[in-house]
Amino acid sequence: MGPIGLPELIFIFIIALVVFGPKKLPELGKSLGKGLREFNKAKNELKATWDEQIREAENSLNSANEPVRKTIAAIHEPTPEAKTEPTPTHPETKGEPPHPPPTGTEA
Predict the structure, then answer these.
(1) Residue pair 11/23 in contact by the 8 Å Cβ criterion
(2) Which long-range contacts (CB under 8 A, 24 or more apart) does 66-71 make?
């Protein structure tokens, strides 16, 4: 079902004119406009309140997570033992990785 076009609006206006009469129709339109304005105002207030509550919840979560973040950072910091020099390599290999032992299938 698509949007309402001009022919549909004219048809609705004619039906309303027949049902309510020419004297009651302007009053009805005024009431409908007022109702729509109040609805939009309430919708905007609700949206503003919702956004404010979301911001407050995010701020609350961020402040509650700060001690957890500090604890995780402290856990991931290297210990003083890990900060020392790596173990020296064997002097005969001069820093090369050790070779695997021969398997006996090499020619």
Answers:
(1) no
(2) none
Q: Which two tokens stand for residue 81?
A: 């033992």
| Amino acid letter, 55 | R
> In the chain, where are the structural domains located?
14-73
> CA-based diameter of the chain, in Å?
112
Q: Which residues contact 25 (CB under 8 A, 6 or more apart)?
A: 16, 17
* Closest to 14 measured CA to CA, from 2, 25, 28, 30: 25
Residues 47-101: pLDDT tens digits?
999 999 999 999 888 888 788 778 887 787 766 665 565 565 555 555 556 666 6
Cα end-to-end distance, the chain, whole Å: 82
**Per the structure block, which two tokens stand in for 28?**
């009805």
**Residue 86: DSSP 8-state:** P
Which DSSP letter does residue 32 get? H
